[in-house]
Amino acid sequence: MIVLATFLWGMSIVIVRGVHEEIPPIGLSFLRWFLGAIFLLPFVWAELRRKYQFIKLHLKLIFLLGVLQVGSSAMLMVSVNFTTAINASVINAAQPALTAVAAWILTRDRITLVQGIGIFSGLVGILIIVGRADVILLLRLDFNMGDGFAVLAITGWGIYAVLLHRFPHELGMTTTLFLIVLTGSLATLPFYIWESINIRTVPLTFDTAIVLLVLGVIVSVFSIYLWNAGIRSVGPNKASIFLNLIPVFGAVLAIVFLGEKIFNFHIFGAAFVCLGITLVIKRNPQTVSQS
User: What is the average pLDDT score of the chain?
Assistant: First the structure.
């Protein structure tokens, strides 16, 4: 399930990059998630009514999860307006390191020395990619704005993974997903309105409808459902290891459909990121028993 989710995310990055000149990012993000919520509503209506008091009790956490999930998605969509799909895909692979940091800060999950080295390695990989392996660019802090948005996106998803893992299980998976998608899409509505007034609107075309259908139902609903199920089953750290498949899927699809190219700094950065992932998920028996 998690492998399929990562494939769909890699595919979505390439799709968004491919249409970024036609469809504005915030509008695309709002409409895809709101469409996903509409699609899910008939399946969760009964449970929403039955567990209204429980939902009301945890509404703040649900809203926060929605902002983190949908807001991070919007950040990634903005990022591919300024950077390549390959860059965004490779940066995504560093999420396990940031998830471990978020778990340590928010829930005091223990980070071993080996995991600490892994986190550092993952951050080095990000710097190599966003700095294009150019020391002068790093010293000048002359980064691509799109790469910066991609880093913010994976940071938000890392926090989301930690909080979701600790969300009470009284609600069904589909209902939880609906509430997260709905609250997150509503949180982006003011930004969508601002974008439509001040920048450009989402074009009403057949191609736009197809893109929204794919991203709104297949990616936004189906992939997140698979990912949430994976997190609840194996925990955020173990699930995050599979995120290093995103740059593989994303790079292959970007090369085939967008004609993008892989450079040496992608390879070097990915090597550090993969090393970081490997070290982050190395957990001693004591750590496993506490999780």
Answer: 81
What is the pLDDT averaged over residues 188-207?
Answer: 94
* Helices of type H across 141-263: 145-165, 173-198, 206-213, 224-234, 236-240, 245-258
Q: How far is CA 96 from the centre of its chain?
A: 11
9 burial via Cβ count (<10 Å: 0-12, 13-18, 19+): buried
d(CA 73, CA 69) in angstroms, rounded, equals: 6
Residue 190 pLDDT grade (very low, low, confident, very high; cuts 50, 70, 90) = very high
Burial class from Cβ neighbours inside 10 Å (0-12, 13-18, 19+) for residue 217 reads: middle
CA neighbor of 117 nearest in space, from 237, 287, 275: 275
CA angle at 31 for the pair 27 and 37, rounded to the nearest 5°: 150
Give the up-direction half-sphere exposure of residue 168: CA atoms within 13 A in the CB hemisphere.
Answer: 10
Residue 170 is given by DSSP the state S
> Which strand (E) or helix (H) includes residue 35?
helix 25-50
Helix (H, G, I), strand (E, B) or coil at 204: coil
What is the reported pTM? 0.78
